[in-house]
Structures are given as C-alpha cells and as structure tokens.
Amino acid sequence: MDIPLRPILSTLRHHRLTALLLVLQVAFTCAIACNVAFMLAGRMARLSLPSGVAEDELSVVYSADARKDMTPSIRHAADLDRLRTIPGVRSVAAVSFSLPLNRNSSTSGVCPDQAALDRAMQRGSLDGTGCAAPSIYDGTPGLVATLGLRLVEGRDFAPGDYTTGSPAVAIVTRALAKRLYPDKDALGRALYGGDKPMRVVGVVDTLLRPALGQPGDEGDSLLVPQLPDDAGITYVLRSAPRERAGVLKAAVAALLAADPERIVPAGQVRTYAQVRAEYFQRDVTMVGLLVASALGLLFVTALGIAGLANFWVQQRRRTIGIRRAIGATRGDILRYFQAENGLIVGTGAVLGMALALALNLLLMRRYELPRLPLSYLPVGALALWALGQLSVLAPALRAASVPPVAATRPA
Amino acid sequence: MIGYYFGLALRSLRRAPVMTALMVLAIGLGIGASMTMVTVLHVMTGDPLPARSARLFHPRLDPLPESYGVRAGAPNPADDFTWVDAMALLRAHRAVRQAAMAGGLLLVRPQRAELHPFYATGRYATADFFAMFGVPLMQGHAWSAADDQAHARVVVLGRELARKLFGGEGGVGRTVRMGDADYRVVGVAGDWRPRPQFYADSAGKLYSDADEFFLPLATAAELNLAVTGNQSGWGKAEGDRARYSDNLSWLQVWVQLDTPAQVAAYRRFLADYAAQQKAPGRFEKKPESAARLYGLMDWLAYENLVPADLRMQLWLALGFLFVCMVNIVALLLAKFLRRSGEISVRRALGARRRDIFAQLGLESVAIGLAGGVLGLLIAQLGLWSVRHRPDDYAQLASMDVAMLTSTFALAVTASALAGLLPAWRACRVAPALQLKTL
After folding, report:
1. Same domain assignment for residues A237 and A344
2. Residues B280 and B321 in one domain
3. Where a domain ends, among A279, A294, A325?
4. Considering A144, B119, B157, B430, which has the largest number of Cβ atoms within 10 A of its Cβ?
C-alpha cells in the first residue's frame, strides 16, 4: 500500500495553522493522559494493598469508660467474655487503638542491634542507621488468630507473654524482618529500642500500618503482647461475613447492658470493610476524577479531530470529485484522509511523549510524584494515534463516498 | 450593527448545529471542571474573619535545637508554643490584646437522666480570646482576666451544647459537670464558626470543627485536662506535667495589633525575646529566624491547608480547559476559513477588516455565552459532587454571586480569546482572490 505523502504535505501547507493547532491539542492530550494514567495506576495499587487481616470477617467497636473506679484491664476481660457469647462470633480480641488502615497509629524506633541503636541515638535520626520505625500493634490473647494473620515462621504469643508492662517478645512482619535483618533469619533475634530488648518469636506474612506513610514501608509492623490498659478500647470481632451486621448490633447492646454509662460513638461501630472504605475514600474520589478527566480529554480530542476532518471533507468535495473522476478509487480517498490524520496525530503524539516527560518532571518537583516509567509513553502515544484513526473514520468514509460527478459542481 | 452581527453569528451557528454543539460542549466541560475546582479553592482560602483579620497576628517562636530534623509532611513543633513561651508573651502584654489557647476534649456528664455522657471538643483559652476574635455571646458574658488568675471553674458554652444540656433556656448560672469537675456557665456563645478555624492547631479538621465550649486555660492547666492537636516534645521532660515544660509545644498564641507602628514594635519585642532566650542557650537559632510574626492570612498561607490532591485536581481541570480551548481555536479557524468565499464577498462589497473581525468575534462570543451557561450547570453538578465527599471542606463547596459571575466572565473571555486568532486570520482574506473560486 503506498501512501500519498507528497500531496498530503502540500495540502497541509495550506492549513498550516489549523494543523499546528491540532498537533498541539494532541500533544497536550497525550502528555496529560500519560501522567493521568500513571497517577491512576499508583492510586489503584494503593487501593488494592492487602491489609493482611481477614477483612471480610471482622467488625470493630470502640468503647470508652466514663467511670473511673475500675481497672481497665479487668473491665476489658469481662467485656471480652460477654462479646464471646454473642451468637455468630467465632473469636474476639481487644486492641488499644491501632488496626490496619484505621489511622490510629503509634510508631516506635527499633534497631537490629545495640550498635545501630547507639548510632541512631547519637544522630537523633533513624535514617541510614539500619533501624526502622514500625507501627506497633498491641492486643489481648488471641489477636493474631482473630485478625486472621498468617504466621509464616515461629509461633504466636503464649498466654504467659502478655503483660501490661513492657513486653519481652515480639512478632514482626516479613517486610520489617527484611528491613531489619536483610540477609539473616529474624527469628530469635533481639530488637533494641525500648526499655529492654525484645526477642522475635514469630514472623507474619503481611500486616499493613494503620496509616500508610511513604510508599515502600507500608508493611513495617510490629506486634507486641502488651495488654491494652486505657479507658478507651477497640474490640475486634470475627464472624461469618453475612453475620457482621447482627454481631455489631449485639455487641453494642451487650456493652451498653454491662454499663449504660459507657460511650460507644455510632461512627466507631464499623465492619472492617467500612474501615477500609473510609481510609481510601479520598483515593476513590481521586480515581473517579482521574478517569473522568482522562475520558473527557480523549472525548474532546476525538470530537475535535472528527470535527476538523469533517470541515476539510466538505471543503474539498470538488477536489475529491476530480480525483475520483481521473481514476482514484474509494479506497484511495479513504487512505488519503486516514494517512493525513495519522501524520498530524502521529506528530502530536511524538511531541506529546516529550511533553509527558516534562509534565512528569514538574509534578515530581511539586507533588513528590514518582518518575513516569518510559513504557507509558509509547503505549499512550499509540493509543492516541489509534483514537485519531478511529475518529477520522466517519468523515473519511463520507469523503470516499463523494461521487466523481462532484468535480463538475461548485464546492 | 452589533445586533446585525449577532444575528449573522446565530445564523451561521445554526447552519452547522453539530459543530456548534461540539464547541459549546467543549467549552462547557472545560469551564465547568475548572470553575468547580476554582470555587473549592476559593472558599478554602477565603478570609475567616473579614472584619478583623487585618489586625490579628500569629507570633511564631522556634525553640527547637539546630539538630532537630522535621520530617517532610510531619507537623513542625515550632508552629505551636511551649507553655513557658506562651506565658511569657502573655505576661509581657505588649499587644493591644493577646490570648493563648489550645484545643480541649472533655467528657460531658449531663444531669438530664435521658442523656448519656458524651465527649465534647472545645477550647481552653485566656480571657482576651472573646474580645480579640469578636466571639458573639447570646447570653451572659465571657470570663475576665481575674477569672484567669483565680483559675475559676467557669465555662462559656457553645450554642449547640447549651441547647443539648439545658434545652431552650440557655443555662447561664447553671452548673455543668465535665471531666471530674463542675463548672459554672457564665455565658452562651452565639453562632461563630470561622472557616477555616484559623486559631486551632493544624491537626484538627479546620473546615468542619467548631468549639462546643470555652474554658479558662489556667483552669485546664491546673486540672491537667486532655488536650487535642499536635503535641511534640524534644527534650527530656516526660510524664503528666511535661506540657508545662519549655520543651513541649502544644499552645497557640494570637495577638491583636491595630497600627503598623504596633506591628513593628511587636516584631522588635519578639526578636528581643528570642535573643534573650538565646543568650543562656535555651534557643539555638538566630533571633531573626527564631522569632516571626504572621498576619492571619499569611499564617493560613504558611500552614498551606489546601490538600495536595485538591491542588492536583485544580491543575487537572485547568489542563483540561486548555486542551478544550485549543480544540475550539482549531475548529473556529477551520470554520471561518471555510467561509472565505462569503468573507471576500463582504470585503468586496465594502466591509472593512475590522467589520469582519467584529462579526466573527461576535460569533465566538456567542459560543462563549452558551458555553458559560453550560459550564455553570456543569460546575453546579461538580460542586454538588464535591459536597458529597467525606472531607471536612466538602460542605463549604458552593458558589457565591462573585464566583457565579466570574464563571460566566471566564467562559465568555476564554471563547472570545479563542476566536481572536481565527477571526484575525479570516479577516486577512483578500477580497478578490477568493471571489474567483466561487
């Protein structure tokens, strides 16, 4: 198939300004669409992070004591016994406040050895010392099983490990183990940072932080067998997915029956699915907006291409007729318009690739966005080129159907 | 003549209805998306106290050691005051009015049996808070400096809390139990919700929170009541009373300065204070960087309350508008040049270039008018969707008259600008040359 490049170029010379504007529009669309797609991929990756807990089966209730005359840990034990008897509840545990993605985070510096700890203390910073700042999860016996964490090495906490003081053992996530002991086995090693070193007795597969910080360290979590000891407490209940609503209702009723004075804010009675949805609400909004703006851009650009092609077809009816009269086939006319569009949109797309990189640099500087992977560029450019071909199809077909007799009529 | 051109423009637009609809749609979408985001940012960066903001200032003292590294994205402890510095500024009494304050969280235990205990958030403040910020009082009065001195157990209730506790009658003179103490209600505040809540610590939801009660700061300190907001320490102080040390920041201080001379004098005073604290080594930074004074709006700009996501959305919308505009320029250009024949007839019949220019310009203005109407509708739809976001700024997202008119003006200006280049290009069509091809 030969493409009539020379006549296209000489025609375009007559429409320099219009063609240039179209190139510009395609370039900007390509640049924005590539970056939007990249941001979208980042958000989607965030949204699909596994928390490590049995998300479909958990419900959480926050409760605060208004009375001051009770020891919190005794109160919690009594509450747990009550919650355990609710029909449908398979297991139950209490945590002070931290759960993956519930935003209530407590972090603490831990180091793989005394030397690293000394280095960190001396510098007043953890950076580059081999130490890490994981999120700390405490809780009552049975927490690991209730959350549904997958223990990949070692053991769960033993009943004797639990204390209200400072714990002697800890369970780390695989991510934290890798960060602290890059090429050693974490099991049995000591963690430095608190009053006394803690021994690692187990490794769980995944446990996300309560609040995701920098990308890359969102899985740095540490479980300690420390019993909650505050008036405010969060109960975690595990049940079959379809029984969650009933279980939550029964749990609130049971807690209030035990002490009508206690405070159970309605917004803090949630299934874990709600916890997750609330955490990612903004990301979901942003995903919606990114998709809408990308579609809007492509839509406007496609309409622009089609509209312009339509004008040009109307304008050239007579020339098309002449070409048809002297032997050009319908296919030739169709190919001519497709090639013309391919040339313009192709130029715009190539320009757009460079513009996409520039835009990404700007975003990197202003919003600390990561670098745009180069693979997005050709894919984006190609997609835009295909869109151009598609949107010019209807006007090109109309051009191809111009009869040769049009040559004899004025435009 | 304008009327005639307008008629011509409408006729020309009606001749290519699909193309016209497309251009109106493009400009409507672009304007609608942009104005949604511009409106959201406009209400978020507005002046919370228009009548008083010019006279309100936020001092900032930086007692942090040189080695203290503030993590990116984390709150800077120097944005809040330590107890020691806040009290020193209040005692010095160098401003017309000055107040120290902090957010508070208390368990309210209603006397009415049908109400369960509940938590309420409010403000611990010194007496000048009310006069300086102009908090209206529906009933009773604020507490006095003498009450501050005496650590009086008094409270000013917000309107909502007063209604909840005492029904319609307000409750001045009654007693309310909060935490473990009883407080006498001396006043009930009227509706007062500055947006953003500029005087609070940046940890709060500044666009939706409102204070439900006000207590004397000295009383709160004596009883060591629970505080909300950032609390960052950098020294050895630990335990219950760490908050009253000189190395844990948690308070906010605002001052009222009425004249430029007072502002200059207060700046000098702050610098002197920082120098004085540097001498014994308590402050490590140079006085000029350790002591600053921000006007209210400058302070809000410094705090940068607009989330990065939102700024990104604005840029996205503006980028979209730009592409839409380029689109319209190209379409108008093609459209006008296609009418070269008609234009050259008009030119040959005596129309001047500027007549052609005006005629074609009016056509793009007509598109802008239609696009503006569509853009307004789309922006209302966009703002409606913003209001359904769970973010704390969401409920503020609506247009005032100024935004309404500027939306319209932007649409018309944008499309007039878009028509400029095509109209200029078209009015240079030579009169005779095009006639020959007719």
Report:
1. no
2. no
3. A279
4. B157
Where does a domain end: B249, B280, B303? B303
Q: Running DSSP on this structure, what letter comes out for residue B119?
A: E
CB A101 within 8 A of CB A213: no
CA–CA distance, A180 with B336 (Å, rounded to integer): 69
Structural domain containing residue B174? 53-303
Q: Are residues B280 and B314 in the same domain?
A: no
Distance CA A67, CA B14 (A): 76
The reply to whether B138 and B269 lie within a common domain is yes
Q: Do A260 and A118 share a structural domain? A: yes
Which among A212, A255, A208, A249 is positioned nearest to A232, based on CA atoms?
Answer: A255
Angle between helices A16-47 and A5-14 (to 10 degrees): 100
Contacts of B319 in chain A (CB under 8 A): 28, 32
Interface contact A21-B330, CB threshold 8 A: yes
Same domain, A304 and A270: no
The H or E element spanning position B184 is: strand B181-189
What is the domain count for chain A?
2
Distance of CA A379 to the CA centre of its chain: 21
pLDDT band at B12 (very low <50, low <70, confident <90, very high): confident
Residue A92 burial by CB count (10 A; 0-12/13-18/19+): exposed, middle or buried?
A: buried
Distance CA A212, CA A101 (A): 7
Degrees, nearest 5: CA angle B44-B49-B53: 105
CB A408 within 8 A of CB A321: yes
Q: Residue A172 and residue A291: Cα distance in Å, rounded?
A: 38
Task: Answer yes or no: do B27 and B120 share one domain.
Answer: no
Same domain as B218, residue B295 = yes
Q: Which element (helix H / strand E) includes A170? A: strand A169-173
Where does a domain end: B282, B303, B324?
A: B303
When scoring A20, A123, A285 by the number of chain B Cβ atoms within 10 A, the one with the most, hence best to mutate, is: A285
B205 — pLDDT class (breaks 50, 70, 90):
confident
- Which of A218, A249, A279 is the C-terminal boundary of a domain? A279
- DSSP states along A175-187: HHHHHHSTTS--T
Domain co-membership, A304 together with A271: no
Tell me if B316 and A293 make a contact (CB, 8 A cut-off).
yes
Q: Chain B closest CA to A187's CA: distance in Å?
A: 31
> If pLDDT is split at 50, 70 and 90, which confidence band does B72 have?
low
Whole-structure pTM value: 0.83
Q: Are residues A14 and A121 in the same domain?
A: no
A289/B29 Cβ within 8 A: no
| Inter-chain CB proximity B309 and A286 less than 8 Å | yes
Nearest CA in chain B to A291: B316
- pLDDT of amino acid B209: 80
- Name residue, tokens 């709060």: B204
ipTM: 0.83
User: How would you classify the pairing of strands B154-157 and B181-189?
Assistant: parallel
Domain that holds residue A330: 5-48+282-408
Residuewise pLDDT in 10s, chain A (411 residues): 566 778 788 888 878 888 899 999 999 999 999 999 999 999 999 999 999 999 999 999 999 887 767 788 888 999 999 999 999 999 999 999 899 998 888 888 899 988 888 888 777 677 778 888 899 999 999 999 999 999 999 999 999 999 988 899 999 999 999 999 998 889 999 999 877 899 999 999 999 999 887 777 889 999 999 999 888 899 999 999 999 999 999 999 999 998 888 888 888 999 999 999 999 988 898 899 899 989 999 999 998 899 888 888 888 888 899 999 998 899 999 999 999 999 999 999 999 999 999 999 998 888 778 899 999 999 999 999 999 999 999 999 999 999 998 888 765
Residues B260 and B396 in one domain: no
Taking an 8 Å cut-off on Cβ atoms, the answer to whether A303 and B329 are in contact is no
A340 and A275 housed in the same domain: no
Domains in chain B, number: 2
